[in-house]
Amino acid sequence: MQSDRQFASRNGPRFAPIHALYVHLMTVGLVGLVLLAAGNAFAQSSEQIVFDFTPGSSFSLLGGTIVTPPDGTLDLGSGMISVEATAPGVFVPGGLFVLDALEVAGTVSKDVLGAAQIDGTYAASQASPLAGTLAAGMNGGDFVDDLALNLNIVLGCVGSGCSSLGFPISDIGLSLLSLSFLSVSDLGVAGSARIEASIPIEVDGVLGSFNLIGVEVSRSFVVPEPGTFVLLATGLLALAIRRRV
To answer: Taking a C-beta distance cutoff of 8 angstroms, is the pair 210, 198 a contact?
Structure first.
């Protein structure tokens, strides 16, 4: 495309500002179209379902030697999934499936064969949303990335058998845990959805798992607000006209 200077030399200086405005508006228009397309791509409606994990979940260690509860308590357990949907209860196979706000906490108290008394607390909270896709059978979510959890696990031990069991143990900080599939049943039945997952964990060399069973507490259908991409494109266009006209 010819420059403003070349256009002015051929057509006279009075046409140069018009040509510059034309070029500027064309550029802004193209940017606006790109932003609009991006905004539409991210503007997906979804069903958000909140779960309670306290009725049936557990935290286990040493191959099931310690399972809390009953070897302790599960005081807090909650989480949420967001599943891409075109209407309430109408989900999109292969659509976006996000696990978020997962949180568990409780206590451990276990006498192991009279040789070791293990006591302490555990807590885990999700550090960031985990995005995946809804399985073709709409029976769960498939994930490629790891689940990021902030852990705070401190378990002390008293007795002659502590060292052989690998206790005491502690893990405080961010951990990336494997979660390739989250099972969901009755996804399309309001008030009846149930999720299950077993998340392996290792604390100071001691193997264990978070065994999650969640029952639906509530759900809501969420339609996103108009994208900021569209507003940005409109603003750029208005600014260009104001500066050039």
So the answer is: yes
Residue with tokens 């994208």: 227
Three-state SS for 17? Answer: helix
CA distance 11 to 9: 6
Distance CA 65, CA 68 (A): 10
The CB-side HSE value for 78 (13 A sphere, CA atoms) comes to 7
Average pLDDT, the chain: 84
Structure-token pair, residue 226: 């108009």
For residue 207, the cross-strand partners are 202
For the entire predicted model, the pTM comes to 0.74
Rounded CA-CA distance 225/189 in Å is 26
Q: Which two three-digit tokens encode residue 149?
A: 């959890």
The pLDDT score that the predictor gives to residue 166 is 96
Give the separation between CA 240 and CA 230, rounded to whole angstroms.
Answer: 16
Give the number of other Cβ atoms within 10 Å of residue 140's Cβ.
Answer: 20
Which pLDDT score is estimated for 226? 59
For residues 179 and 199, the answer to whether their CB atoms sit within 8 Å is yes
pLDDT digits (tens, 9 = 90+) for 56-113: 999 999 999 999 999 999 999 999 999 999 999 999 999 999 999 999 999 999 999 9
Show me where the domains of the chain are located.
4-40+226-244, 48-222
